[in-house]
Specification:
By secondary structure, this protein is mainly alpha-helical. It has a 4-stranded antiparallel sheet with strand order 1-2-3-4. Strand 3 and strand 4 form a beta hairpin. Helix 7 packs across helix 8. The longest helix is centred in the C-terminal third of the chain and has 26 residues. The termini are far apart.
Length: 248
């Protein structure tokens, strides 16, 4: 091989040194790429293929995407906003989003659950103020929501009559928090115990299932991702079945 054909590619990091024989063939190590132009074409093709595969591997898992979302600012903010809206008028509980994020990023439990509680507190305070200002308007708003009826509102008034923070302890599905908020604000009840009652309601109703999802996310992260479609399908079906029974 001739030493006359030493070639250097500028503007690359690291620089590539090649040797060219008398026939114009370029050699890098032990592999021939033909002409210089062929070498560039081959190298560019391999780099493009590598980037494509990297993108495919990095983006194929929805749970990985959810984990990145939960670990950033967007996850806690989304949970806060959902909990806020649900405490005022949204008929879908924030557990739906919280559970997905906890399965994907179980170590974010404290931040995500705290965001949910803060959102529920803020929304409950807004609904409390609206009820004081226009109780009949809020009553009509609540009765227009699916799953809420006058007997439920009447029963909620009896539940909060004591004004005790523990009166809103609720394990599992049941009367929405917004109904209890309306009953509390509309009754002759001291507001002192209201905020602690909201927190206890969130802890008793949401935390047990959330902790179970945290445990599953910690113990079986690889299993969840290998069977992601089945897991997410069952997750969605479980909530659809729950709402079907609740609204029946």
């Amino acid at each position: 091989m001739s030493d006359a054909g030493l070639a250097f590619w500028p503007n690359t990091t690291p620089r590539v040194r090649c040797e060219m024989n008398g026939e114009g063939n370029v050699f890098v190590g032990a592999q021939s790429f033909g002409s210089v132009r062929g070498f560039h074409r081959r190298a560019g093709s391999e780099m493009g293929r590598s980037k494509g595969l990297s993108s495919l591997v990095a983006g194929h898992s929805l749970l990985d995407d959810l984990a990145r979302f939960a670990n950033g600012r967007g996850g806690p903010l989304a949970v806060f906003l959902w909990a806020f809206a649900e405490a005022v008028a949204l008929p879908v509980i924030p557990d739906v989003l919280l559970g997905l994020l906890l399965l994907a990023a179980p170590r974010r439990f404290v931040i995500l659950f705290a965001s949910l509680c803060l959102g529920s507190l803020a929304g409950s305070l807004v609904l409390y103020g609206l009820t004081v200002a226009d109780p009949e308007g809020v009553r009509h708003l609540l009765l227009a929501l699916p799953g809420i009826n006058q007997p439920m509102v009447t029963a909620a008034s009896g539940t909060v009559a004591s004004g005790s923070p523990t009166c809103l302890l609720l394990f599992g599905p049941g009367t929405p928090l917004k109904v209890f908020t309306f009953a509390w604000a509309n009754g002759a009840i001291s507001p002192i115990g209201f905020l602690p009652a909201v927190i206890l309601n969130r802890v008793s109703r949401i935390a047990p299932l959330a902790l179970a999802q945290v445990g599953l996310g910690l113990v079986a992260p690889d299993f969840l991702r290998r069977h992601e479609r089945i897991v997410l399908g069952l997750y969605g079906a479980a909530y659809l079945a729950t709402y079907a029974l609740y609204l029946a």
